[in-house]
């Protein structure tokens, strides 16, 4: 027979269960009410429907044409007196730069879906949507395709929409300006790029419509070796291997036989990788949440060494023997972030350590040669510092070129090649205290 105490305990337990049940119901009702109030709306949006092209059509489009006007500057690469300038999504401008004071546009290499490139010897490697293309550039006036790795970029996306490696990729967008969407639940989540996924494509509020299109590190070497690329590169060459960022992975491709690239391995690092920079037997990978150091002493088997963590921000990196120089900037895709230059001690690769941070305006790419550090500080232009004393970089400004939007640089044997929204600028820094402008190639002008 139950005692009074036992009966009271049972009633208390029942009451507690009832209270818990009512609390859960109340919580659900509040959530549902909040969802209805905040999500259930009818509004006009601009809808972009993806337009797909078959991989067979894309692979047949690689071609060499006469020079074109540069309309948008992407990545830049320098090799044997020639500049190779990426037109995002379209291909590569080939510029004779044997006289940096008078660069001459020679040809345009059509490579659909191209955003990155690297060169070893006489072979240029370029991405083309989901493929890697190898092109013989021994004669810049007669460039031809000599090899291809089909479907090597398995994480390729356009605004988060994936490709079908056996069928098609997104090559353009069809705009519909009068779409009325009723949001009846909380499934429409605004993305960092300002819109949300809807139906088969993307939707944007009329006040935040982007201009969507298909366009949506130094590796020292010469002769038969690699050329030099910028700090925003996602491709780099070291030890007869091409290393490429593909989503969460670093792909190693054996290019010992230049015209017969072969995939060697895939190493999972993290989702937020952005740039890649080689130095000796290491890769330094810039990411939104930090810098990764990867050992490539066994070239076909990259191995993680360490990670230096920083605030979430866009992050290219360049290095010398002792320090890594990292720029952090704020942008929509870079989340909150800060605008900084960070100097990191990498003498012990197992324990990279912050030495000092410097405030910047909106730094993008950077480069270092000996003790001269160049920083592309967005709308605040190009800045050159003497970095001999890493604790006093901000007090040793050598030059500041304002009035240009600077994106990335390649310093190479006293010649600085800089790209930005305003064009391509070249400087002679033989005397770092007296840097001279040599030439300028404007956007939209041959």
Brief description of this entry?
With 446 residues, the protein is mainly beta. The protein contains 2 helices and 36 strands.
Task: Describe the secondary-structure layout.
Layout: H1 4-39, E1 41-54, H2 55-59, E2 63-65, E3 76-79, E4 82-87, E5 91-96, E6 104-110, E7 117-120, E8 123-128, E9 131-136, E10 144-149, E11 157-158, E12 161-162, E13 168-183, E14 196-198, E15 201-205, E16 228-229, E17 235-238, E18 241-246, E19 249-254, E20 262-268, E21 273-279, E22 282-287, E23 290-295, E24 303-309, E25 317-319, E26 323-328, E27 340-345, E28 353-359, E29 366-369, E30 372-376, E31 382-386, E32 397-401, E33 406-412, E34 415-420, E35 423-428, E36 436-442
Antiparallel strand pairs: 1-13, 1-15, 2-6, 3-4, 3-16, 4-5, 5-6, 7-8, 8-9, 9-10, 11-12, 14-15, 17-18, 18-19, 19-20, 21-22, 22-23, 23-24, 25-26, 26-27, 27-28, 29-30, 30-31, 31-32, 33-34, 34-35, 35-36
Give short descriptive properties of this protein.
six-stranded antiparallel sheet, about 450 residues, mainly beta, about 10% helix, single chain, about 45% strand, four-stranded antiparallel sheet
């Amino acid at each position: 027979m139950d005692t009074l105490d036992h009966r009271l305990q049972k009633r208390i337990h029942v009451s507690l269960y009832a209270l818990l049940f009512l609390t859960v119901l109340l919580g659900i009702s509040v959530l549902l009410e909040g969802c209805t109030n905040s999500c259930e709306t009818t509004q006009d949006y601009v809808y972009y429907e993806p337009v797909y092209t078959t991989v067979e059509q894309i692979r047949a489009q690689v071609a060499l044409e006469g020079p074109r006007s540069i309309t948008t500057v992407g990545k830049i690469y320098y090799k044997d007196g020639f500049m190779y300038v990426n037109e995002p999504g379209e291909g590569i401008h080939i510029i004779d730069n044997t006289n940096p004071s008078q660069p001459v546009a020679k040809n345009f290499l059509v490579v659909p879906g191209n955003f990155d490139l690297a060169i070893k010897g006489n072979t240029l490697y370029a991405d083309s949507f989901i493929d890697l293309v190898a092109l013989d550039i021994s004669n810049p006036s007669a460039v031809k395709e000599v090899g291809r790795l089909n479907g090597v970029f398995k994480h390729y996306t356009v605004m988060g929409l994936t490709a079908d490696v056996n069928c098609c990729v997104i090559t353009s967008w069809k705009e519909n300006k009068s779409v009325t969407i009723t949001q009846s639940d909380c499934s429409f989540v605004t993305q960092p790029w300002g819109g949300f996924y809807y139906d088969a494509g993307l939707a944007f509020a009329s006040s935040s419509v982007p201009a969507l299109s298909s366009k949506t590190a130094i590796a020292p070497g010469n002769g038969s070796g690699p050329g030099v690329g910028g700090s925003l590169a996602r491709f780099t060459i070291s030890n007869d291997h091409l290393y490429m960022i593909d989503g969460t992975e670093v792909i190693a491709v054996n290019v010992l036989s230049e015209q017969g690239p072969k995939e060697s391995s895939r190493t999972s690092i993290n989702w937020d990788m952005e740039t890649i920079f080689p130095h000796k037997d290491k890769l330094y990978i810039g990411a939104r949440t930090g810098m990764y150091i990867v050992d490539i002493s066994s070239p076909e088997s990259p191995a993680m060494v360490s990670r230096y963590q920083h605030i979430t921000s866009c992050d290219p990196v360049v290095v010398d023997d002792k320090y890594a120089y990292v720029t952090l900037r704020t942008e929509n895709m870079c989340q909150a972030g800060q605008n900084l230059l960070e100097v990191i001690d990498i003498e012990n690769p197992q324990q990279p350590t912050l030495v000092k941070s410097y405030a910047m305006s909106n730094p993008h790419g950077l480069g270092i040669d000996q003790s001269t550090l160049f920083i592309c500080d967005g709308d605040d232009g190009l800045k050159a510092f003497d970095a001999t004393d890493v604790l006093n970089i901000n007090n040793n400004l050598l030059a500041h070129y304002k009035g240009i939007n600077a994106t990335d640089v390649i310093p190479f044997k006293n010649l600085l090649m800089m790209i930005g929204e305003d064009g391509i600028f070249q400087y002679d820094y033989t005397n770092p205290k007296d840097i001279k402008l040599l030439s300028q190639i404007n956007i939209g002008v041959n």
